[in-house]
Amino acid sequence: MNIEQLNQNYAIEPHIKFIEHKSGFPLIEIDNTTAKAVISVYGGQVLSFQPKSHSDDLLFVSNKAYYQQGKAIKGGVPICWPWFGPDPDSKGRPSHGFVRNRLSKVAQTQALSEETTKIILSLSDTPDTREIWAHPFELSLSLTIGSSLTLELVTRNLCEQAVSITQGFHTYFKVGDINQVQVLGLDNTNYFDKVDGGQQKLQTGSVTIDSEVDRIYTSVGEKLTIEDPSLGRRLCITSTGSKSAVVWNPWEKISLQMGDLEDDDYKRFLCVETVNAATDVINIPSGGEYKLMANYTVES
Questions:
Q1: What CATH class has 3-290?
Q2: Does the global pTM surpass 0.85?
Q3: Active site: which residues (predicted)?
Q4: Which residue among 20, 153, 272, 300 is least packed, with the fewest CB closer than 10 Å?
Q5: d(CA 244, CA 213)
Q6: Is 273 a residue of the active site?
Q7: How far apart are CA 89 and CA 156, in angstroms?
Q8: What are the tens digits of pLDDT across the range 208-223?
Q9: Distance between CA atoms of residues 209 and 206, nearest Å
């Protein structure tokens, strides 16, 4: 479906319109009385969310991000599904599954009010996806843009047997200075330290970043907070359907090695991810469904 058709079928003036990125990917622009946002239909990926009461975007997107078929866009909120992290069966399949590098479908758009806009994207199994993951499914992503940003990812299992998944919102939060940032809400929480060979450790106090960090926290509560004094704001993450969270920053060495990051980009973002990962595996019965939700609020 081309941009003209998308606008005819789904645009709602003045809140929702579709534009074409220079790559050819369709983008959805949202502009209501409380916030602006940009969503890539490719990957079902939020690229920008900015409340009009704040001067900075919630999200980070690399200036060197790839906008190419088959590649993930570096930044925003990539969707990891039906597995989080490396291929769980070691078959050489892509890390974080296949949703983030496929074109979604626009299922519905709504102007709920002058202040709140809702977009629903969907993805179903195809012969191509079944070669990667053999199960029939329906995936629905609801995005609500208002004074806060809410993502709801619903997996429907169309198999005749149960399936197991891991998944996540791989959210890149924009920060003013990584050296000043703290993540609150993880004190006294166990985590797997992937930088240290997956050793299990215990978090003491707030999380601060002064080197490469790649951790899966387990038995996590429903609210986490990123304190960002450099930008004078607090980012509040509230979730349901998740018992685990990932904190990731590649730091200098890995940033230098990544073709889709600028050398010092690690100073400008922190990933705090609402996930089902590690021991937090989701089993969905035949005909059943599972919902993962995250809400992001910006406070001064």
A1: mainly beta
A2: yes
A3: 170, 273
A4: 300
A5: 16
A6: yes
A7: 22
A8: 999 999 999 999 999 9
A9: 10
